[in-house]
Amino acid sequence: MNLKDCHNFSDFRTLAKKKLPSPIFHYIDGAADDEVTYNRNTSAFNDVDLVPNVLRGVEKVDLSTTIFGKKIDLPFYCSPTALQRLFHYDGERAVGKAAQKFNTMFGVSALATVSVEEISSMIDTPKMFQFYFHKDRGLNDSCLERAKAAKFDVMALTVDTITGGNRERDLRTGFTSPPKLTLSSLFSFATKPMWGINYLTKGKFELPHLQDFVKEGTSTNSSIGNYFSTMLDQSMNWNDAEKLCSKWGGHFALKGIMSVEDAKKAVDIGCTGIMVSNHGGRQLDGSRSPFDQLAEIVDAVGDKIDVICEGGFQRGTHMLKALSLGAKACAGGRLYLYALAAAGQPGVERALGQYKAELERDMKLMGCTKISDLNRDNLRFRNI
Q: Is 279 a catalytic residue?
């Protein structure tokens, strides 16, 4: 199987599994506990049907939308994800260049393997920095100031990682950052020699935003769950978020909002957007899916801030459903991470191009020519 054989999300996942050692693949693919929430993130879209209109003259379709004051050409963007260098040696460089090609937003994690300075010098598409609130206030200040100096457009404070989720696949495979060989993983790494060659020869694995402050995850092996549980500040509260919003002084979002109450508080502290997200099902198993929560959150705050639906998207029709409910845009990590692992920048470009083609085709089939044409009249929920 090669890149040319990848026609959908499932195909990219299959090729990624072929390319990656087992611990690395299952870090992307896995989630918390029994992975009920992870699976619901996608299956939720199947509980609502699209109602198309016809004879609307749909020769030209405009997929653009505006979020955080920036116009992007697609109604979806690449969410920030950690450790991308492990999935492909070009990591964030590959994803950033692909996002630039399609003029959509690119999210960069505090746990990225490429610095905000390099990303900023490389692309001029809108950029989001994902902030983790560490115990080390010097690290927090450094991340904020570096992202601000690099002229990132949005800061997104992650609020759903107050402790690490129980990611049992990582426990079974022994996944850590940086990777380490164990008896159980040795065979998997040995059977993927090209990954090992590229990892050892294509530049040193680094976490440039963290390495001057902490050893965990950089020079000391650590699981992501353990990192969240030990390095992040579990006393973080709404006052901290409000101070960070004020200190940033620009577009500011909370990533990981799932309740109407919290969405309203986000408005109160000055946020300009929220990501309705459960961290890809990787934190609290049994929680609601973003799509299941989207309507009530949009109804509560959608006229005040940008509401982004994040997670579970595998098809253009999934995005149409979220946009019809009132999301300003859609976002996800796995929607491009499998493609990154499969083939680097060409893989991500192929994936983004396929989502774009699906959206254009599906918009025409819905009788819509612009995102604002989508609304709840387009939807019928099966359980109502």
A: yes
